[in-house]
């Protein structure tokens, strides 16, 4: 999920601690719980510091080892230790560890529901795991958790802990429904394209709008499902082979994309100066005007690499919402 969502989820997670009498009675302990819950909800994304090196390095490592199962108790131990010392509540370090661990785990599990995915089984498996069920920013979940936080802040509604518990109950039911709905849509797409080699369906910003890409022996079929309406967008044939494609394979950004991509696609074009531009993308993340997630390599006429770049070329509010 996006940073704002993670922070909001950390706040509402901390709110459930008010069921515990010792937390409700001690403002310092309550502050410590909020600290570990909010920071724990952000901690796996501290790998963003790698962005200072390069976008290639960031995309190579983001949602990797910092999100992996072995990292969960490490983050929780560090955060609970600091909070116990900072707030002077060492007697409750185990409680703080539990909330920090829950916050980190929820961060990774929410990331798992997105189409971008997460490598939380490192170092045992390097697969990018993704459920393709929730957008990076889900308006419904934002509304639920923001309403709970504001209701508690202004004393609206039932006793405060129940507001937060109700928000999390809705969240679990909603996530389960979206995961099940995604599976139903995947089955619909498979029935329509019976000779498919692979099918990917990504959520739109609205509940009943899904974006799909299907790989067949002839190429790729892309389109949108809006309720019961099929809105095919285009057929994309496989790109013709060329030596410039082979030359681009040695570039770091291309290797990074290929390690991540599920449905990689490459295209090339000859430049007026006699050189070439080779574009690699993951077709799961298509949109009408271009490929928002791509690696581009420019080569001269002798197939020497002149320049390379990789990244997301879209605004946060533009599709696809990953």
UniProtKB/TrEMBL annotation:
Keywords attached to this entry: Hydrolase, Membrane, Transmembrane, Transmembrane helix
Keyword Membrane attributed: yes
GO MF term list: hydrolase activity
Residue ranges crossing the lipid bilayer per the database entry: 28-48, 69-88, 94-112, 133-156, 162-180
UniProt keyword Membrane, yes or no: yes
Pfam families: YdjM
Protein name: Metal-dependent hydrolase
Natural source organism: Cohnella boryungensis
């Amino acid at each position: 999920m996006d940073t704002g969502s993670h922070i909001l989820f950390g706040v509402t997670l901390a709110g459930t601690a008010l069921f515990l009498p010792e937390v409700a009675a001690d403002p310092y302990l309550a502050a410590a719980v909020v600290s570990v819950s909010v920071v724990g909800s952000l901690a796996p994304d501290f790998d963003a510091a790698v962005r200072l090196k390069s976008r290639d390095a960031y995309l190579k490592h983001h949602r990797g080892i910092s999100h992996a199962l072995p990292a969960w108790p490490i983050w929780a131990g560090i955060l609970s230790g600091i909070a116990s010392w900072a707030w002077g509540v060492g007697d409750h370090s185990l409680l703080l560890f539990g909330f920090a661990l829950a916050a980190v785990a929820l961060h990774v599990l929410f990331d798992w529901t997105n189409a971008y995915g997460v490598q939380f089984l490192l170092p045992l498996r390097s697969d990018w795991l993704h459920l393709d069920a929730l957008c990076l920013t889900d308006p419904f979940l934002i509304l639920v958790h923001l309403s709970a936080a504001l209701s508690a802040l202004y004393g609206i509604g039932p006793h405060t802990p129940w507001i937060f518990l109700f928000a999390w109950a809705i969240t679990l039911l909603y996530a389960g429904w979206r995961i099940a709905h995604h599976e139903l849509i995947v089955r619909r797409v498979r029935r329509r394209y019976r000779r498919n080699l692979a099918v990917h369906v990504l959520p739109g910003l609205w509940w009943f709008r899904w974006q799909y890409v299907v790989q067949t022996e002839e190429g790729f079929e892309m389109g949108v499902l809006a309720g019961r309406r099929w809105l095919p967008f285009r057929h994309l044939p496989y790109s013709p082979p060329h030596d410039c494609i082979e030359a681009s394979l040695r570039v770091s950004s291309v290797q990074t994309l290929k390690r991540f991509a599920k449905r990689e696609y490459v295209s090339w074009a000859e430049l007026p100066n006699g050189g070439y531009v080779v574009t690699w993308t993951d077709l799961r993340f298509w949109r009408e005007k271009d490929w928002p997630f791509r690696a581009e390599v420019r080569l001269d006429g002798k197939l020497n690499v002149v320049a390379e770049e990789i990244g997301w070329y879209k605004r946060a509010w533009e599709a696809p919402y990953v």
